[in-house]
Amino acid sequence: MTEAEEASSWGSDIDAPSIDWRQKELSPPMILVINQDVPPLAGPSDHFDLIYAVSVFTHITTNWAGSWNSIR
User: Fold this and answer.
1) Could you tell me the pTM of the whole model?
2) Which domain holds residue 27?
3) Which of 31, 32, 62, 67 is the most exposed, fewest CB within 10 Å of its CB?
4) DSSP designation for 46
């Protein structure tokens, strides 16, 4: 698929050791950034066509709904 050849894969986490491991094991081709537990995510505005999250909000305990819900 042409899209797969042109796509970039980004990873983001609030845990620096997790990002360090991913840098060693998965990068390249991944672009990895450390983010905070409040918006915005690091990265260019209007850059992403798809964002996929796994087990994110179960780890954010303070004001997660107010913070991330407001960026719609």
Assistant:
1) 0.59
2) 1-36
3) 62
4) T
Query: Rounded to whole angstroms, how far apart are CA atoms 54 and 61?
Result: 16
If one counts the domains in the chain, the total is 1
Q: How far is C-alpha 26 from the chain's CA centre?
A: 14
Q: What CA–CA distance (Å, rounded) separates 39 from 22? A: 22
Please answer whether residues 32 and 43 qualify as being in contact, where contact means their C-beta atoms are separated by less than 8 angstroms: no
Domain for residue 25, yes or no? Answer: yes
pLDDT tens across the length of the chain (72 residues): 676 677 888 888 888 998 899 888 877 778 888 888 777 777 777 888 887 777 666 666 666 556 555 555
